[in-house]
Amino acid sequence: MHQTHAARLMDGTGLARRITERSAARAAQITRDTGTAPCLATVLVGDDPASVTYVRMKRARCEKAGIVSRHVGLPSTTTTAELVDAVSALSQDPQVHGILLQHPVPSHIDERAAFEAIAPEKDVDGVTMRSFAAMSFGLPGFVSCTPGGIMRLLEEYDVDLAGRHAVVVGRSAILGKPVGMLLLAGNATVTYCHSRTKDLESIVRQADILVAAVGRPQFIRGEDVKPGAVVIDAGYNPGNVGDVDFETAQTRASLITPVPGGVGPMTIAVLLAQTVDAAARQLGLGPDRRVLSCDGAR
Ligand code: NAP
């Protein structure tokens, strides 16, 4: 069946590769200049298969980019106090520049307490309350990685945010909420939708910039996409299916992220870039703005 291909694709794979190449070059420079390689510590509690895979992927990408990867694996019986101690030890370790605590932790653990044990200057995954405050005030700091990746994609494709209506569907702490905060800091007019939102479709239809972060396959119908809208599909559901009905949406949108190859690859790229920035700062070199320039959002 022939479809009109109106929308331009936003290529997250290519942009993520370019950011990662710059991070690797910067990591090599830091290592040459200081004798110390940037180091990301990953912390994983338990053995959830998806989390094990994510952590393995992140570690492999780090090593490929010349970032040392240190791993702390803890049993699923770990208590909040034990996890806080392990994270605090990494926060105090001068050899470690970034810390990633893989989410979710087992339900008996106070996740917030564990996140807050991450030293702010090492919070390269943007999970502490201090990082959230910086995002909400539009101040410099580390951003949540997937939202940071979305902002960087918007910047790459010269999407003007000021005064435009951004609708974010989803309000999770790692995705929907922070991306809305960053869009607001970029002067968009932001509406959040969530599971209690009434008449969600009519709000979606008003979106100049639509961010789908729901976790339900093809939840956003193409016919609800405003003609000319920029559509960011952060969803990733089994079978490589996004939260947006891509086939129909792309006939109406001006720009759209594919799934896979849109938002997905950006998350690790932002993590690596922020780790290199963190190392540069801690080693007294200052950040390299070229690695991750989403200053409009920070
Ligand atoms: P989440 O924590 O489950 O949050 C889902 C959000 O969607 C919640 O705010 C929820 O509302 C809302 N929602 C659920 N059902 C809804 C409905 N019927 N109508 C309106 N809103 C509804 O998920 P998440 O962690 O944010 O992830 C969302 C998606 O992004 C998933 O597909 C995930 O795989 C993907 N993701 C991708 C990346 C990446 O590409 N790197 C990273 C992170 C997540 P309530 O708050 O009211 O419950």
Automatic annotation (TrEMBL):
Residues 144-282 form the Tetrahydrofolate dehydrogenase/cyclohydrolase NAD(P)-binding domain. The keyword Oxidoreductase applies. Residues 10-125 form the Tetrahydrofolate dehydrogenase/cyclohydrolase catalytic domain. NADP(+) binds at G170, R171, S172. Pfam families: THF_DHG_CYH (PF00763), THF_DHG_CYH_C (PF02882). InterPro entries: Aminoacid_DH-like_N_sf, NAD(P)-bd_dom_sf, THF_DH/CycHdrlase, THF_DH/CycHdrlase_cat_dom, THF_DH/CycHdrlase_CS, THF_DH/CycHdrlase_NAD-bd_dom. It comes from the Bacteria. Belongs to the tetrahydrofolate dehydrogenase/cyclohydrolase family. Catalyzes the oxidation of 5,10-methylenetetrahydrofolate to 5,10-methenyltetrahydrofolate and then the hydrolysis of 5,10-methenyltetrahydrofolate to 10-formyltetrahydrofolate. This is Bifunctional protein FolD. It comes from Actinoallomurus vinaceus. The gene is folD.
